[in-house]
Design brief:
Rossmann fold; alpha/beta; flat; 17 helices
């Protein structure tokens, strides 16, 4: 690990703390500003003077920095991703605010200003992200201008993956790599010549399909000379992306898992589903009544339809607001010749004559999917996951398509925010498979936020 990685990472800790403190102080002065205070007077000079508030802010900021550390925001990296950091910052600060509110509720002896909490939360997210953005820009400038902290790199291989890595390094200097040479095979005699002039910090084995003895010799060489060693996994290596190790007696066993969504993570995801779905059903109930009236007024039939779907090998009934005329399923076989999804087993038809006037509005704005919160509450679906699958579709799936059935389907998902029904079926499967194999709470949060962002402008549903 180079000193520059340590420097830029260590700087983040006091910087984050400073930004959190400033966010709290800014929130306090906003609340006590005459323009705001005249509208809703406060008595902070009695029960929450500035000196006391600063002490509280320092304590809360220290606590949030600890949460950041637990979330990996201070992990040593050559170059940081602002977008990745943003979602972790948002999640960390949100968690801290929830715990703070809970603490205030239990103690009942702090201040009662909801404005301070809301403003502090928003300002903290903005200022911490902005501080890290400035640091990333400074680091990128130093890398481009002075090659400060760059990793001197040798790439081993001559395949397409090698070319791709080389192009990324040459076209994106902000990645922090300086390519020394590209050799075709793990020849130690060639690598040794680069050790002193100009030096080597890292070796990437882009093509790992060499004799085991050569690769082990290269690994030993890197270890001896304190050189970082990385390799691009082949198909057999990728099978072990999600693994767990246990023993039977004295024999170690490695379990290849389909997804990291297991154990406590599954419990946490289920708890989030229960809380959000129950709150959503309560808050949206008056809105549901309005939609129910519009659906009944527009056409004959029930307000809700129950559609057969499959979740982890079991059928369940998926709830949706009815957007089609009564008996629409029976007419589907007559419209199959107009199917626009010739790349797979799914059916899609623009200007489908079975869709009602209200149904077209519901589909355009995804309102027909809101009753799926019932399925989420019951445990048949999740907020985020692959698209729910019909039994007759699954019968036509190829072997690799069935990977998407490994976890519960979701109201939204990676495929839905990436084009939904406009995506080719194979691309949809790839996105859902990626989600399953790389699941995380942060990924779920990104998908939910992007779903909200495209909620009113997604034209792929009709």
């Amino acid at each position: 690990m180079k000193p520059s990685e340590i420097i830029f990472t260590v700087i983040l800790l006091p910087l984050d703390f400073l930004m959190l403190v400033l966010a709290g102080i800014f929130a306090y002065f906003l609340r006590t500003n005459p323009l705001v205070a005249n509208f809703r007077p406060v008595l902070f000079y009695v029960n929450l003077p500035l000196s006391k508030f600063i002490i509280l802010t320092l304590a809360v900021s220290l606590f949030l920095v600890l949460i950041f550390a637990l979330m990996g925001l201070y992990k040593m990296k050559q170059v940081r991703s602002i977008s990745e950091d943003f979602f972790k910052i948002l999640a960390g600060i949100s968690l801290g605010v929830i715990m703070l509110v809970f603490y205030i509720f239990l103690r009942r002896e702090w201040f009662n200003s909801r404005f301070l909490i809301l403003a502090g939360w928003i300002l903290a997210v903005v200022l911490v992200t902005f501080g890290r953005y400035l640091i990333s820009k400074l680091q990128a400038y130093l890398i481009r201008k002075y090659k400060f902290g760059t990793q001197r790199l040798i790439i081993i291989g001559n395949d397409n993956m090698t070319v791709k890595i080389k192009n990324d390094i040459e076209n994106k200097p902000e990645l922090g790599y300086q390519l020394i040479s590209n050799i075709n095979n793990p020849d130690l005699s060639i690598i040794k010549n680069s050790l002193k002039n100009p030096g080597v910090d890292e070796i990437i084995l882009a093509d790992p399909n060499w004799e085991k003895e050569k690769i082990l010799e290269l690994i030993d060489f890197c270890s001896e000379h304190h050189i970082s060693f990385k390799f691009v996994p082949n198909i057999f290596h990728t099978l072990g992306v999600n693994t767990s190790i246990e023993t039977i007696g004295s024999i170690p066993l490695i379990e290849l898992k389909r997804t990291p969504l297991d154990g406590w993570w599954r419990v946490i995801k289920r708890c989030i589903d229960i809380i959000v779905s129950s709150l959503g059903l309560i808050v949206l109930f008056p809105f549901f009544l309005i939609l129910a009236f519009a659906i009944k007024w527009d056409s004959e039939g029930p307000v809700l339809v129950k559609l057969k779907r499959v979740s982890r090998g079991k059928e369940f009934l998926l709830y949706k607001f009815r957007s089609m005329i009564k008996g629409a399923d029976d007419l589907k076989k007559f419209l199959w010749i107009y199917n626009e999804r010739a790349d797979g087993p799914l059916f899609k038809m623009k200007d489908d004559p079975r869709i009602t006037n209200v149904g077209r509005f519901l589909r355009r704005h995804r309102l027909d999917e809101f009753p799926q919160l019932i399925n989420v509450f019951k445990g048949e679906m999740s907020l985020v996951g692959p698209r729910p699958h019909e039994p007759n579709e699954i019968e036509k799936y190829q072997k690799h398509h069935k990977k998407v059935l490994a976890i519960k389907p979701g109201i939204t998902g990676l495929a839905q925010i990436s084009g939904s029904s406009d995506l080719p079926f194979e691309q949809e499967v790839k996105l859902d498979t990626y989600y399953i194999e790389n699941w995380s709470i942060i990924l779920d949060l990104k998908i939910l936020l992007k779903t909200l962002a495209i909620f009113w402008r997604d034209k792929s549903a009709y």
